[in-house]
Amino acid sequence: MAPNSEEQRKLQRIVRESGLDSLLSVLTETMSSSDLNTLLLEVFRERIRASTASDLLRRYESNRFVHPAAMNPIEMKRLEIDILQIADNHAFSPIQLSPVAPLGSCSIVAPADQNKVISALRGTEVVADATNLLALHICDLVKSGRASNEDNFIRLSTTHRHVRAQHFDTPGMFPHFHVFCMITSGKDKGSYSFEKQAIWEHIHVYQDIFKLLCNSEIEIVLNVRRSGYKDPEGLIQRVMQYGEQSSVRVSASESTGKEDNSYYKGLQFTIMVNIKGQHIPIGDGGFVDWPQQLLNNRKERMLISAIGLDIMLLNGFL
Q1: Is the pLDDT of residue 21 over 80?
Q2: Is pLDDT larger for residue 221 or for residue 316?
Q3: pTM, to two decimals
């Protein structure tokens, strides 16, 4: 956190007004996680005990995270079922995730700031990215021996309502929104065999989703990501060559942009869709090193991707 940031100034004020210079270090370093949880549970219980029904209504009125979404829930449920069925037909098994994830799910293995997530008690946070929770589930299965990605990929899909804590200035962006996610887990077998197959499997699913549900074609833009792979340009070339040889017929191009980030490794793909004259980026995906970190195994490979469902409904794509 930048030393002159608004959050840092607020924190300094709280410490100063408490009269306890060591307050933050006691809570974050000295006190155990279980003791901190017990303390905070009691703090919230006492605060709620002193609250009235009028206080509750005022909290509802002023809290942007708790208001209903703008779309029709029946249409959303139908869209979820249709998309999950298409993914299941492509061997991406649907799974229903919990509304909460372990605390730090987005910020420990990925470069997300914890302040962008709604942290909760009992060692949890509200799910802000379902792919992180899917990755944790797969790594737990692999570590325990209940599943193996050695000879065959593990493929999962889900729909989930995300909550993000940061403020969005972009029109059509909301504090909570629905997504469809896929994740593929496998092992490095050399010659980018996992990468080439996994990415086109994801693209094939999205191609079917927009063709069958929206009667629209998609375009894929491949973007180089400098970290994670020794030869990201070679990776993209191999992926493009594999796509030309596969049965997936989709417009794919390489980005000429120079932007980079540390979220995806080696390669990111953006999903563009043309609907009713609109050329819209509807989702993206790419390779991540999360299972390498979680399982301490450099041979682990993982591809994630997601599209926004609120955008599809609110823009009349269906």
Answers
A1: no
A2: 221
A3: 0.89
Name all contacts of 7-13 with Cβ < 8 Å and 24+ positions apart: 7/115
Residue written as token pair 């989703």: 209
Among 230, 213, 258, smallest CA distance to 79 is for 213
Q: How far apart are CA 27 and CA 36, in angstroms?
A: 7
Domain ranges of the chain: 6-62, 73-314
Bridge partners, 219 (sequence order): 251, 272
Residue 313: how many CA atoms within 13 Å on its side-chain side? 18
CA 168 to each of CA 43, 165, 218, 240: distance values in angstroms, whole numbers, following the listed order: 30, 9, 26, 34
Q: What are the phi and psi torsion angles at 193 (to 5°)?
A: -65, -40
Q: What pLDDT was estimated at residue 3?
A: 45
Task: Kindly report the CATH number that applies to the domain delimited by 73-314.
Answer: 3.30.930.10
